[in-house]
């Protein structure tokens, strides 16, 4: 199972929106609406911010939203803030109760 | 509140085995699968496998088949991940994570495994 492909880095100015892509295959992202997204600050455990493509857990800012088209899922961060500067990972169900993570994206707020 | 507690650091020599624990509390033990995810230094997240708390069934990523064993002890609300034939490339932080629907909503603080001679 190969890792899902994410851009290594993305950047934006405060207040702007950015969209992080997560590209998989017909065996994972393309077959299931079961993509989740995680925010990970340095030295900390990941935090769930989106599950099942576009569902937000309680307490997660509505500035985070998810979508999917074909084999590519996306995470949009609206109204970019300094606190959003960190690493983001996607994850997809891949059948037979297995999962695969993305390569990760480092977001920089200019 | 939901808590997953892991030991801080483990050090092993190449060829040895390690068993990492994940003690859960704050929710009904049998309600949610526990998954294991690792992260090598400076690298991304890698899914390793899962354990069902109700049936004890497990499933592993193909990469770790034959080298990893996951288990649970219901009486003490604890899950385990044992990795054998350790090599330097297994040096990483190992996390347990609770599955909620199709997302991992609660995570342990991670166990740093150092494999070094």
Explain what this protein looks like in three dimensions.
The complex is a heterodimer of chains A (110) and B (117). Chain A is globular. Chain A is mostly beta strands and 110 residues long. Chain A starts with 8 loop residues before the first strand and ends with a strand. Chain A is 0% helix and 43% strand. The model of chain A has no long low-confidence stretch (mean pLDDT 97). With 117 residues, chain B is mostly beta strands. Chain B contains no helices and eleven strands. Chain B has strands spanning 3-5, 9-12, 18-25, 34-39, 45-51, 58-60, 68-73, 78-83, 92-100, 103-107, 111-115. The radius of gyration of chain B is 13 Å and the shape is globular. Chain A binds chain B through residues 1, 3, 32, 34, 36, 38, 40, 45-48, 50-52, 55, 57, 89, 91, 93, 96-104, and chain B through 35, 37, 44-47, 50, 59, 61-63, 95, 97, 100-105, 107-110.
The whole-angstrom Rg of chain B is 13 Å
Report how far the terminal alpha carbons of chain B are from each other. Answer: 40 Å
Number of strands of chain A: 9
- The percentage helix of chain B is under 10%
Largest sheet of chain B: 7 strands, mixed
What structural class do you assign from the helix and strand content of chain A?
mainly beta
Could you spell the SSE succession of chain A in H and E letters? Answer: EEEEEEEEE
Give the proportion of residues in helices of chain A. under 10%
Structural class of chain B: mainly beta
Rg value of chain A: 13 Å
Q: How many helices of chain A in DSSP terms? A: 0
Main interface by residue count: A-B, 28 and 23 residues
Largest sheet composition of chain A: 6 strands, mixed
What characteristic shape of chain B results from the CA principal axes? globular
Low-confidence stretches of chain A: none
Oligomerization status of the protein chains? heterodimer
Number of strands of chain B: 11
Element string of chain B (H = helix, E = strand): EEEEEEEEEEE
């Amino acid at each position: 199972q190969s890792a899902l492909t994410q851009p290594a880095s993305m950047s934006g100015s405060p207040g702007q929106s950015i969209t992080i892509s997560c590209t998989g295959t017909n065996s994972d992202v393309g077959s299931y609406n079961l993509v989740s997204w995680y925010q990970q600050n340095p030295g900390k455990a990941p935090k769930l911010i989106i599950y099942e493509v576009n569902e937000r857990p309680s307490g997660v800012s509505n500035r985070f939203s998810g979508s999917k088209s074909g084999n590519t899922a996306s995470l949009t961060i609206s109204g970019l803030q300094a606190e959003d500067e960190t690493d983001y990972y996607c994850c997809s169900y891949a059948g037979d109760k297995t999962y695969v993570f993305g390569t990760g994206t480092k977001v920089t707020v200019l | 509140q939901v808590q997953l507690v892991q030991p801080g650091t483990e050090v092993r020599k190449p060829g040895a085995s390690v068993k990492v624990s994940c003690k859960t509390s704050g929710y009904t033990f049998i309600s949610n699968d526990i998954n294991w995810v690792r992260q090598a230094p400076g690298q991304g997240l890698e899914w390793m496998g899962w354990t069902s708390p109700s049936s004890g069934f497990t499933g592993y990523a193909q990469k770790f088949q034959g080298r990893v064993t996951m288990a649970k002890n219901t009486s003490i609300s604890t899950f385990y991940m044992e990795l054998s034939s350790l090599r330097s490339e297994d040096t990483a932080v190992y996390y347990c994570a609770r599955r909620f629907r199709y997302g991992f909503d609660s995570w342990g603080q991670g166990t740093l495994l150092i494999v070094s001679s």
